[in-house]
Amino acid sequence: MILSAEYAWIIPGLAVIAFCITSLFGKNLPYKGIFLPIAAALLGFIFFCLIFVDFISTGFNPSSVSIDWIVIDDLSITLGFSIDEIAIVMLGLVTFISLLVQIYSVGYMSGDPRISWYFAVHALFAGAMLALVLADNLLFLYFCWELVGLGSYLLIGFWFEKKAASEAAKKAFITTRVGDVGLLIGVILLFKATGTFHIPSIIHAAQNGAIAESTLIWSSLLLFLGAMGKSAQFPFHVWLPDAMEGPTPVSALIHAATMVVAGVYLIARMLPLLQIVPGFLTLVAVVGLFTFLFAGIIALVMTDIKKVLAYSTISHLGLMMLTLGSGGLAAAMFHLVVHGFSKALLFLGAGSVMHGMDGETDCWKMGGLRRNMSATGVTFLIGCLSLAGIVPLSGFFSKDEMLLSIYEGLGPIFLFITLAGVFLSSLYMIRLFCVIFIGEHRSEGAKNSHESPRIMTYPLVILAVFGTVLGILALPLPFGDFEGLGNFIDPKHHFHLSPWITSLSLLITLAGLVIGYMCYGYPKISHHLVALRFGYLYKLTLSKFYIDEFYQWVIDKIVLSAARFISIFDRVVVNDTGVDGMGMSVLLSAFKVRLIQTGKLYNYGAAMGMGIFFMAVMWILVSN
Q1: Per-position DSSP letters for 177-246, written without gaps between them
Q2: Where are the domains of the chain?
């Protein structure tokens, strides 16, 4: 039986139910209740497959279902779920990746005393993201947006006993809140202009000139601010590397299918609206391009295996934003899927390395792990080469789709600058692989390393297979009506390659791989001498361009100083003078007045006599 697309809301519903049961009763259930979130993820993926078949069989017709949420007079706010091409793609990505990550987590989190809470929040996190991609109105989307933020906070700070983990969770929560406030204001502006939160209705109103240009500009800027915060675009990127303090499977889920791709999804969903604002997509492209290069440069010098991957994620999210800025909706969404599988593979591979080395994360204490961890090494290499864009892996197809879109939408200058980022991407990917898996063991931990259990390596193999063959989705099938994933997402898009762009990008990618291998794999070039040659630049990059320190200085010297001034003003002027001062004046007045309000008759008689006497004297003086 094929499940109708109208029942897509069941998928996030299953995850929420699993969260509720596991969080409340997990400790008393067999296996701590962890089978419930896994079962919810498995059923969610099965339902996705059925819905996808139904969606194709009905001719790609979008469908939706909604119920009244809030009704005030003529205003009706709904909880609406909508299925279209973008939602289907995201639904498949989130359900499949979350399922594999949860299976992997059984081995990785084994023995943790709070494992039931981990799996419960994992289900909430995935369920919130699933509801977000299905939401058909901005208010419901924002509600799910904040739930995603809550899930990330709880999972990043899962090991809250570690100060670094609790601080990282707070940093992620506060940094993204800045963008979230902007998103909320943008949603309110659009509602005020249109009287609805329904996304298609808002876009239709904008396309028909029903929204003032100033409102469009400000609301678009605020929506993009929210997307920048969630997708860690410069200057909001600082939270994502620190978020690596959470369990590694959480990092895989955040980077591959949930938290950080929410911003890219929002821009993709609202792209028809943003295209109306003159020059706005150029702003999106510039921010994305700078983030792509900036994070790629930092990834070159990081030594923590997870932070290298974190900056790689920031860089590739910037590339997706750049592609959306060129109008390449299909190319950006295709790379989002490819990147999701590849980055999940790399993070789970990093977790396998850490598991085999008793939690070690410093790359330079590893080396030669291919001999002890062959399965992890092979799958990790596939993930690295896919993200680098080597043919015939899936990353090659998505990378060339984006480069072509950038060239056609933004011109050759943007293309050639982007190619510099492509070189950086291949260089830091091969550097990471070589330092970890090639050469000799650099520590006792590396010598004693061991392969992870099968429940952890099987998801790696599955992801590696998808990372290898997923690129075929870019190509039209010789049978049926499927013209490629890009055409499925955007009917105006048709897959084609530009020979000179493909050749140039592949040459640049190979150059990065060769140079990286010569520096770190088969050392013909001393990377130490290169670092010394560019000493100041190297130290500047190693310190992440002091962005974190600058933010800390602003907080310490400006924000906290302003807060102290406001605190003193509130206490001295508002509270002590304005509020307590009035009460104190009444009290002091009462002390004075009580000297004459004694309640004794002779005092009042004397006062009246003195009053009459003074009145008589005044009358005589006035008369004379």
Answers
A1: HHHHHHHHHHHHHHHHHHS--BHHHHHHHHHTT-S-HHHHHHHHHHHHHHHHHHTT-TTSTTHHHHGGGS
A2: 279-298+310-542, 550-623
